[in-house]
Amino acid sequence: MSALQSISGKGQPAEAYDVVVVGAGFAGMYMLHRLRGLGLSARVYEQGSGVGGTWYWNRYPGARCDVESMQYSYSFSDELQQDWDWSERYAPQPEILKYANHVADRFNLRPDIQFNTRVDRAVFDEAANIWQVATSDGKTATARFVVLATGCLSNARMPDIKGLDRFKGKVYHTGHWPHDPVEFTGLRVGVIGTGSSGIQSVPVIAEQASHLTVFQRTANFSIPARNAKLTAEERERFRTNYPEIRRFAREEARNGIYTDLPDRGALDDGDNERRARYEQRWQRGGLTFMSVYNNLVLDKAANDTAANFVREKIAEIVSDPQTAKLLQPNNHPIGSKRICVDSDYFATFNRANVTLVDIRSNPIEEIVPNAVRAGGKDYEVDALVLATGFDAMTGSVAKIDISGRQGQTLNQKWAEGPKTYLGLMSVGFPNLFVITGPGSPSVLSNMIVSIEQHVDWITDCISFMRDRGFEAMEATKDAEDKWVAHVNEVAYTTLYPQANSWYMGANIPGKPRIFMPYIGGVGAYRQICNDVAAKGYEGFAMTSAARPQKLAASS
Ligand code: NA7
Question: Which of 253, 276, 301, 417 is the most buried (most CB within 10 A)?
Fold first, then answer.
């Protein structure tokens, strides 16, 4: 029995759609909206019970977006961006989820979204140029195209810590937080992990817990958010200037965030001036701290000046010198892991009910029923919070058994690391698109800017194919090889690969160490994608049923 027969052989007729979309986060919702605009039939499968993707799963205390709310929002509908009132400079997770639900209702998306349903398998029928999709409800569907809108940070990673299953208290993962309120009042809580999720949740949990023990393996750079209520005037300023703000974010800002861009490198200024500039950005707060100078991720000596500034700030904030020293990051350049944006993280360690445990020098040996054992010592806790991150970028794709030409699976193909052309398609998997996948700017950017760009490009591409009667589209090997080499080459002109980050797959034992996102910047990347399309989808081969036809030379 072929893979195809086995998938469809359950006795139920498959439902036929033009497009199957996997995931109803911000990418899947906008994709559906655009496909409907083309008059195509689409089905979105979503494993959660609601829309929102990452913001549906990451409900931990203190969860917030690190991109400002007026920018972390859709731009495709001016009415939407004019109507929606963000309450704070950085939107808290419940508000982002409310926004996602508002969008789903406003554009009447729900009738085409099937919730509580995972896509388990997808098999490409080469003869018919059709994908067969098997879902967790035991049904199958067919579609000309499949779009993976599966998200980059939605596949929570449970750490392999001995004894975790024997712990008698409750265990929570920040990326898979319960929907019911979690109460830590009066409890001794342990938080393992000090990435963005740990750094956001620690100050909030510290206020509730009788005692909080933070287990830190790697200290991280974090910049104060300076979060505040947005005033009507601030909202209005954005709304009036949205055309320019959105244009700038798409075309000029490398990371898709509107801010003033640097005109010089860190070593072009003398000590006092440099310090004054860092101070000004520190006071302003947020991710754009890294935009003070134009060479912070390129030149280690320049990077050191910013890293030293932040280390000094930590020493100023944290009263106990030993704790301050432990909190000062020392094993990676600033920005080579995504910097965190916090509200009172470092000051939280001045509280009498908070302890920092350095598990770099004293690794966790095991979890016993009432404690975390590290360095031969038991730290008693009643509840454990695992802020241990995600199998990022590829994890959610890998969970689906995707079979392309000649039965090759995507997991087999990506065993040595993800290979794509433009992050959008992978050779051997025709008509399968990935949104914000590896090989695209994705997680290095304001995700909504990147999502909208990918969705628009895919929509145009499908429309192009339909108008010309093409049934299948596939990246060429030559184009893919060149793109993979380019992504890699650009990454290694920066300091990013020096960190053991999730960008590199370094947080997952056994995952290949490849710098996954494209670091060339959203503006340059958009231009490349537009040029490819303008040249008749250069580097892709398109075929019609009757007559295989290569549209363009494969560069
Ligand atoms: P991250 O950034 O991957 O952080 C995970 C943290 O958990 C990090 O401090 C890890 O230490 C730590 N970790 C992971 N596994 C273990 C084990 N086994 N033992 C001890 N400590 C461990 O995930 P986040 O959820 O915080 O943030 C992800 C992104 O979401 C973030 O970048 C923003 O873009 C939003 P390590 O550094 O590996 O030594």
Answer: 253
Whole-prediction pTM: 0.95
Enumerate residues 6+ apart whose C-beta is below 8 A from 484. Answer: 419, 420, 439
Alpha-carbon distance of 30 to 453, in angstroms, equals: 11
Task: For domain 15-155+392-544, give the CATH number.
Answer: 3.50.50.60
**15-155+392-544 shares its CATH topology with 157-220+337-389:** yes
User: Is there an atom of ligand 1 within 6 Å of 507 CB?
Assistant: yes
Greatest pairwise CA separation for the chain in angstroms: 75
Q: Say if residues 292 and 265 touch (Cβ distance below 8 Å).
A: no
User: Is residue 368's pLDDT more than 90?
Assistant: yes
Is the beta carbon of 161 within 6 A of some atom in ligand 1? yes
Position 107 scores a pLDDT of 98
CA of 389 to the centre of ligand 1 (A): 4
Tell me the β-bridge partners of 368.
Answer: 371
Instruction: Tell how far the Cα of 225 is from the centroid of ligand 1, in angstroms.
Output: 19
Confidence at residue 553, expressed as pLDDT on a 0 to 100 scale: 35
Domain covering 157-220+337-389: architecture: 3-Layer(bba) Sandwich (3.50)
Q: Is the CB of 159 under 6 A from ligand 1?
A: yes
Q: What's the 194 CA to ligand 1 centre distance in angstroms? A: 6
Domain ranges of the chain: 15-155+392-544, 157-220+337-389
Distance between CA atoms of 141 and 132, rounded to whole angstroms?
6
pLDDT at residue 154, rounded to an integer:
83
